[in-house]
């Protein structure tokens, strides 16, 4: 047990959106913020190629299975000690780490981590492209829920900035209404989103739906000049969350950001704390 910290010393965020909505690039823009750098990125199907132009770049590890996340977590949790097995494994692989401790960890590809979890409990799912995977039973979903919530809670509770990314799940109800949420199956969708303080939906400006357009109707000129909109407040058609209470220049609660970056997000949070 410890005293709750209400001063938001770290960014705890989940960024979700469809492919091409710049989740990876937005998360990795943390490298340009002094308070966030150096940045460790643990990616699984997140396509780090999209940040190859960044200078500096995050230290990027491609994760290939669920157990790959245990060693870096233990190292981060214990304060990044120099004699940890994680350091020795990096040296063996000739991977150079920055001299300064990491201030940010990015998990790029939560949707794929969920697949890792299924493969961990059902080895018959990891088969050759021409083979048939084994069937998934209801009890397997319960087990994956346990795995995912345990994974997310422990990483999010680290004493550093934590940024997660996820693909977007789109569902249509019986009357044709479309709803969008992070692509995390079952209860994981809501529980993992509840652990972080900020859930931002990223979407390409040209593809936003009618209801979202009504949200930005007062600022269409800026919307047309931007490529990406990051929504920070939920609408009837998609989920978002801002427990930081970010403010814009007019003192109104923000609904969205154009072409968001981690620097812009963090500056808005600090702006609120100074008031």
Describe this structure in words.
The chain is an alpha/beta fold and 275 residues long. It has a domain at 12-202: Rossmann fold (3-Layer(aba) Sandwich). The chain has nine helices and ten strands. The protein has helices at 23-28, 70-77, 85-92, 110-121, 138-156, 188-195, 210-215, 220-225, 262-274, and strands at 12-17, 39-43, 59-62, 104-108, 161-172, 178-182, 198-204, 228-231, 241-242, 256-258. Strands 1, 2, 3, 4, 5, 6, 7, 8, 9 and 10 form a ten-stranded mixed β-sheet that branches. The longest helix has 19 residues, at 138-156. The protein is globular.
Secondary structure layout plus pairing:
Elements lengths: L11 E6 L5 H6 L10 E5 L15 E4 L7 H8 L7 H8 L11 E5 L1 H12 L16 H19 L4 E12 L5 E5 L5 H8 L2 E7 L5 H6 L4 H6 L2 E4 L9 E2 L13 E3 L3 H13 L1
Parallel strand pairs: 1-5, 1-7, 2-3, 2-4, 4-5
Antiparallel strand pairs: 5-6, 7-8, 7-9, 8-10
Features:
275 residues, alpha/beta, Rossmann fold, 10-stranded mixed beta sheet
Task: Give a short synopsis of this structure.
With 275 residues, the protein is an alpha/beta fold. The protein has nine helices and ten strands. The chain has a domain of 191 residues: Rossmann fold.
């Amino acid at each position: 047990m410890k005293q709750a910290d209400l001063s938001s010393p770290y960014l705890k965020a989940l960024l979700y959106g469809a492919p091409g909505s710049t989740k990876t690039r937005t998360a990795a823009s943390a490298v340009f913020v002094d308070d966030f750098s150096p940045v460790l990125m643990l990616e699984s199907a997140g396509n780090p190629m999209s940040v190859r132009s960044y200078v500096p770049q995050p230290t990027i590890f491609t994760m290939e299975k669920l157990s790959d996340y245990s060693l870096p977590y233990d190292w981060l949790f214990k304060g990044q000690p120099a004699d940890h097995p994680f350091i020795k494994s990096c040296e063996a692989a000739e991977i150079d780490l920055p001299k300064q401790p990491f201030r940010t960890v990015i998990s790029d590809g939560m949707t794929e981590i969920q697949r890792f979890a299924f493969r961990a409990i059902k080895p018959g799912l990891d088969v050759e492209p021409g083979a048939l995977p084994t069937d998934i039973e209801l009890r397997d979903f319960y087990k994956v829920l346990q795995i995912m919530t345990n994974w997310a809670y422990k990483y999010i509770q680290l004493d550093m900035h934590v940024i997660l990314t996820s693909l977007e799940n789109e569902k249509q109800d019986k009357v044709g209404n479309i709803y969008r949420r992070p692509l995390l199956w079952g209860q994981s969708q809501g529980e993992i989103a509840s652990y972080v303080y900020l859930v931002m939906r990223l979407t390409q400006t040209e593809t936003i739906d009618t209801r979202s357009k009504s949200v930005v109707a007062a600022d269409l000129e800026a919307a047309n000049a931007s490529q990406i909109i990051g929504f920070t407040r939920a609408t009837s058609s998609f989920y978002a969350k801002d427990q930081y209470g970010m403010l814009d220049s007019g003192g109104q609660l923000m609904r969205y950001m154009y072409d968001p970056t981690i620097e812009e997000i963090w500056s808005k949070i600090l702006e609120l704390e100074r008031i």
